[in-house]
Amino acid sequence: MKTFIQILLCFFLISSIALAQKTKDVASKTEAKGKETVAKTITWMSFDEAFAANKKNPKKIMIDVYTDWCGPCKMMMANTFTNAVIIDYINKNYYAVKFNAESGEPVNFKDKTYTNPGFDPTRGGRNATHELTQVIAPVNGKIAYPTIVYMDENMNILTPVQGYYQPEQIEPILKFFGGNVYQKETFEEFQKSFVSEFKK
Q: By the 8 A CB rule, do 156 and 149 touch?
């Protein structure tokens, strides 16, 4: 009887160790999966990085023109550019650039250097508008934030699109330019047959 109890205790001990190890393995895999999910973000680049990458492997370029004080810009970052469908499409089809429209940093674009002569580093909140913002972001002569500027592989501006867009709203725009549909039909025509990933 004593031997039987000892065998039974050994069995439970071995089972407990095995279960604990299995639980640890599952936890490790879950943690790794969680880290992968957290790490999956849009690969934001500087202008120089995007242009250098584009020379090696041409892709469309999208520029998120924002300011530090812009509420809708922060909403785009929090709600739209964190969506898995949007992240995946942008990373595969675009070089994504974040550009502070009021930055004091010089930017080289198409063999010309653009600056912000009126930039004041001591000023809080709004600052002077960067020269490049005035070149790439206006729609009908007006600048608003956020503005997403879409460019082709040769850095030609396709169009700037102003305003806050939710994931399902920006998706057709990204695919219209990213899939070269703009070369064949108008955006209005494209929308009629477009099937969103969010509705599948």
A: no
- 21 inside domain: no
103 within a domain of the structure (yes/no)? yes
Q: Considering its fold, how many domains does the chain have in total?
A: 1
Please give the residue range of the domain that contains residue 180: 39-199
Give the global pTM. 0.79
Planar angle of CA 112, 114, 116, nearest 5 degrees: 165
**What phi and psi values does residue 152 have, to the nearest 5 degrees?**
-85, -175
| DSSP calls for the chain | -HHHHHHHHHHHHHHHHHHHHHHHHHHHHHHHHHHHHHH----EE-HHHHHHHHHHS--EEEEEEE-TT-HHHHHIIIIITT-HHHHHHHHHHEEEEEEETT--S-EEETTEEE--TT--TT--S--PPPHHHHHHS-BTTB--SSEEEEE-TT--EEEEEES---HHHHHHHHHHHHTTGGGTS-HHHHHHH---GGG-
> Per the domain annotation, does 8 fall within a domain?
no
Q: Is the pLDDT of residue 147 over 90?
A: yes
Instruction: Report whether 178 contacts 93 (CB < 8 A).
Output: yes
Phi, psi values for residue 56, rounded to 5°? -80, -40
Residue 107 maps to which CATH number?
3.40.30.10
Q: Is residue 101 part of a domain?
A: yes
- pLDDT band at 125; cut points 50, 70, 90: confident
